[in-house]
Write a structure and sequence with these properties.
- Helices cover 0% and strands 61% of the residues.
- It has no helices and ten strands.
- A hairpin with a 2-residue loop joins strand 9 and strand 10.
- The chain is elongated.
- The two termini are 23 Å apart.
- The relative contact order is 0.19.
- The model has no long low-confidence stretch (mean pLDDT 84).
């Protein structure tokens, strides 16, 4: 997707309950929650009739609903385009796992019957943690 389609719920300590319709009304809460710092792709943008609110349609991993960009009462920004967020990667990284593998074999069974086998030989795995912060 285009970078312009991605948005982020700012980390202001507020979670957002998605709505089934493009509205801020709590009558339309879906139960799907966006946590602060969540980055998501919007499939559609819709302005409210009074132009005071912008709604963003989300469909991802079985989650569907409408987010809104401004706080319903205070009118302050809750969601911003991800391109406007300054992301910083820390100078250090931490390697959690480093492994040299000669062979890994996984057998998948269902009711004592072998269904599938996966075999990987001569592999290397590394899991590295990068610390990010944003403005």
């Amino acid at each position: 997707g285009e970078e312009k389609d991605y948005y982020m719920l700012l980390n202001k300590g507020l979670r957002m309950n998605l709505r089934s319709e493009p509205t801020v009304s709590s009558d339309f809460k879906t139960g799907w929650i966006l946590e602060p710092g969540t980055i998501f792709k919007a499939l559609e943008r819709k302005e409210s009739e009074d132009r005071q609110q912008t709604f963003l349609k989300i469909e991802s991993d079985g989650i569907t609903g409408w987010a809104f960009m401004n706080h319903p009462r205070h009118k302050t920004a809750l969601v911003v385009p991800f391109s406007a967020v300054k992301v910083h990667r820390a100078d250090y990284t931490k390697v959690y796992v480093h492994a040299q593998l000669e062979e890994v074999r996984v057998d998948l069974f269902w009711k004592q019957r072998a269904l599938a086998r996966m075999c990987m030989s001569e592999g290397r795995a590394e899991l590295t943690n990068y610390k990010f912060s944003y403005d």
